[in-house]
Specification:
single chain; 352 residues; 11 strands; three-stranded antiparallel sheet; alpha+beta
Length: 352
């Protein structure tokens, strides 16, 4: 399994001592579990700590001075800052394998749907992520235009409307309705489909969408006229609906203690309603098979600075999309990273 964490570009992390590592790691993990600040007295009683409460307070003071932890209010313990979380995920976090019951749940959810229907498959994947992580599961569909064409079939619906099935690699079927201003004999449309299939089978859909008359110099004008109508219709539909976002689990986030106030609930609901924002956030990473984590203020959008986002790419045939979760900064990063990795791998295996 590939397990890579990508540090935010331009951010250089300081190197902490072993003692500081131990204290910061304990503060982060305790806050993730309890949502409560960690005191020096609490740590001094934990197994593995051979430091006095006073010594731990000194380490905490140094970590606070350097911006890794903060004190919410006087006499309270400490909580991690964005910088502390970043150090934790880049330097301290250990890989864990998720339980077999979690793996079984994800796999069963995905294999239960018709794998030729990309919409149903990705919808199921977002539900599996949400259910197994208790966060907002997000799936960005691949760009259909990068799919490899395997065949075309046309079926009449009405006098000037047809159902066009585009068979893609890995068994996916892209179904679309094409409509013409005038009625065209079905046999001529079927002939045009056969010509397009002969020329573009084994190539990406975008090659067909980008085709012009130079690609059809050997085709009689009688047939070329239909192709000139059919290709722009396909192009318009594919590019107009080239990517979709699937989300599941908004309630999981709203139930977190961080978002109990009315103002924060409203902000969360507004974010999740902004599909364009989510699509932008989950644009396919430049480097495949690498986990990307952005924490709090590392997110450029102001409304997302109370959240962390974990994502990675997945591949179905020749097409690449991305998936992941959005949740509070106080999230179980090792478990979530492994769950996202496993979900991406199962999606890819189903269509290898």
């Amino acid at each position: 399994m590939v397990f890579l964490l990508v540090q935010v570009q331009g951010m250089e992390l300081e190197v902490l001592s072993e003692r500081e590592h131990q204290v910061l790691d304990a503060i982060v993990r305790n806050y993730i579990l309890s949502a409560s600040p960690t005191s020096s007295r609490y740590l001094s009683k934990q197994k593995g700590f051979d430091l006095s409460s006073a010594s731990i307070r000194n380490v905490m003071y140094d970590l606070e001075e350097r911006g890794f932890i903060a004190q919410p209010h006087t006499s309270a313990g400490r909580v991690p800052t964005d910088k502390g979380y970043r150090y934790y995920v880049d330097r301290l976090m250990q890989y864990i394998d998720i339980p077999e019951v979690t793996k079984d749940s994800i796999r069963k959810t995905l294999v239960a749907v018709d794998k030729s229907d990309l919409h149903l498959l990705l919808e199921a994947a977002s539900k599996a992520l949400s259910r197994t992580t208790n966060q907002l599961g997000v799936i960005l569909s691949p760009r259909i235009c990068s799919g490899i064409l395997r065949g075309m079939h046309l079926f009449p619906i009405q006098s000037n409307r047809y159902l066009l099935n585009l068979a893609l690699d890995s068994g996916f079927i892209k179904t679309m309705v094409v409509e013409f201003e005038t009625e065209i004999p079905q046999e001529r449309l079927e002939c045009a489909c056969k010509i397009l299939a002969a020329k573009f089978t084994g190539k990406e859909l975008q090659d067909m969408c980008n085709a012009d008359d130079r690609h059809f110099s050997d085709i009689p004008d009688f047939e070329l006229g239909i192709i000139r109508l059919l290709v722009p219709s396909i192009r318009k539909i594919i590019r107009g609906k080239d990517a979709s976002i699937f989300t599941e689990g908004e309630t999981n986030v709203l139930l977190q203690p961080e978002f109990f106030s009315r103002e924060r609930v409203s902000a969360v609901i507004e974010i999740f309603a902004e599909k364009r924002l989510l699509m932008h956030l989950f644009e396919t990473p430049e480097r495949e098979e690498e986990v990307m984590i952005t924490i709090g203020g590392e997110n450029r959008e102001n409304q997302l600075q109370s959240f962390s986002i974990i994502k990675r790419s997945y591949r179905v045939g020749s097409m690449v999309g991305s998936l992941g979760v959005i949740g509070p900064k106080r999230m179980p990063y090792p478990y979530l990273v492994s769950t996202i990795e496993y979900t991406a791998r199962v999606l890819s295996e189903l269509h290898s």
